[in-house]
Design a protein that fits this description.
53% of the residues lie in helices and 13% in strands. By secondary structure, it is an alpha/beta fold. The longest helix is centred in the last third of the chain and has 24 residues.
């Protein structure tokens, strides 16, 4: 009954999982704030979604993009930036696809033909175009002009245009990052004037939504490039662990009425999960979306019958726990030395004793004030700890790995 083809859990990156958990605030932001304001010509900032690996940044925006496409909006393919690549080339190619969707390529205006030709040059040469050629506008100007044209076409059709640039932390070329942020920001803040019936003069913003996703350190680089301008044009969210209640809710379809799968007679049947199994699975993943999908996937494979039991969840975790541990090790291992030393020292203290003074002393800082900037980064930039009284962990999988709470199943 349970097969690999029917498994609804997927721990792969950039995939919108069928069993969706949490991130309600970000989904509501798109449905109730960002899209309605944009299609009514009201200004809105872009969205930057950052977080440690495994927190579901790309999957979240791909789900938003899927909803947008279903509503008739124009959506770029996921513009994933590999390390060392030129983001202007990638964005230019994606915008050319949107221009095709908008019907701009079929219009016979000389102005549009020239613009598309210039964007094709950017798609071929990227940021190096401005380094080699002394004439003509900078690449960011060309991209912004095309995005404005697409936005105006979207406004006429009363739809939104969504651009998603992923893995933005890989943009290490300062010139390319600056040009990209300016191009996207200028298009988002562009206002179009027209006369409404009765001769009333009206200005409207274009319905352009930009989502940037990546690792937390991107905000440092972007802030250094654009300073206050970046903050004015993009609202940043640092994703954290998902609440246990949201994970339980995501699994409710397995409890009642059951997860539908094909049967052997050409009809449908249901795979269910006991409430004990739900409790064990939620406890194992510690609010981490990747671990939630991994634990669910392996629990599905741990049997063939119609009911997933708590013992099967544990058996699946025994298969998955090496990969789960390696995932959390990578998160800890990529921290700078002083940040890693601070979280390790924090984990060694009893929860009630996790004050900055005690943590700094154990981590070898000369004083609590010397540890302050490091703890602030772990809180506001990375979302791993919470500087309350006392300090606590937001990233519960990291806390579990560094303490005796790691869910090892014998």
């Amino acid at each position: 009954m349970r097969s690999a083809v029917d498994n609804p859990f997927n721990p792969g990156s950039d995939v919108v999982p069928r069993v969706w958990a949490g991130r309600t605030a970000q989904l509501v932001d798109w449905r109730a704030v960002l899209r309605p304001r944009l299609v009514h010509g009201l200004p809105e900032r872009g969205r930057t979604i950052l977080g440690e690996p495994g927190l579901g940044k790309s999957a979240l925006v791909r789900r938003i993009a899927a909803e947008a496409a279903e509503a008739g909006d124009w959506v770029t393919p996921q513009i994933r930036v590999p390390s060392g690549s030129d983001p202007l080339k990638l964005v230019a190619r994606a915008l050319l696809v949107l221009a095709q969707d908008a019907g701009l390529a079929s219009q016979r205006e000389r102005r549009l033909a020239d613009l598309l030709g210039r964007v094709e040059s950017v798609a071929a040469s990227g940021v190096s175009l401005s380094l080699r050629e002394s004439t003509g506008p900078e690449p960011h100007v060309v991209l912004s002009e095309l995005l404005v044209e697409i936005g105006q076409a979207a406004m006429a059709r009363k739809v939104a245009c969504l651009v998603h640039v992923d893995e933005v932390q890989n943009i290490t070329d300062e010139r390319a990052l600056s040009q990209l942020l300016i191009a996207l920001g200028d298009a988002m803040t562009h206002r179009t004037s027209f006369r409404a019936p009765g001769g009333v003069h009206i200005e409207q913003s274009l319905p352009i939504a930009v989502y940037l996703t990546g690792l937390p350190e991107f905000e440092d680089r972007a802030g250094a490039q654009k300073g206050a301008t970046f903050a004015r044009r993009f609202a940043t969210t640092v994703l954290q662990a998902i609440d246990d209640d949201d994970l339980v809710l995501a699994l409710q379809d397995f409890v009642i009425p059951g997860w539908e799968v094909p049967d052997e007679q050409g009809g449908l049947t249901a795979v269910r999960m006991t409430q004990d199994a739900v409790a064990v699975l939620v406890d194992l993943c510690r609010g981490e979306p990747f671990l939630f999908q991994l634990a669910g996937q392996q629990a599905w494979y741990a049997g063939e019958e119609a009911v997933i039991t708590a013992d099967q969840v544990r058996a699946g975790w025994r298969t998955a726990q090496r990969e789960a541990a390696a995932h959390v090790e990578r998160i800890i291992g990529r921290l700078p030395p002083r940040e890693r030393e601070l979280v390790e020292a924090m984990a060694q203290l009893p929860p009630a004793d996790r004050t900055l003074t005690r943590i700094a002393e154990r981590a070898g800082f000369p004083s609590a004030s010397a540890a302050g900037p490091t703890s602030q980064r772990l809180d506001t930039v990375r979302g791993i700890i919470d500087r309350g009284k006392p300090y606590s962990f937001r990233h519960r999988a990291v806390e579990a790995f560094l303490t005796s709470d790691w869910p090892a199943v014998g």
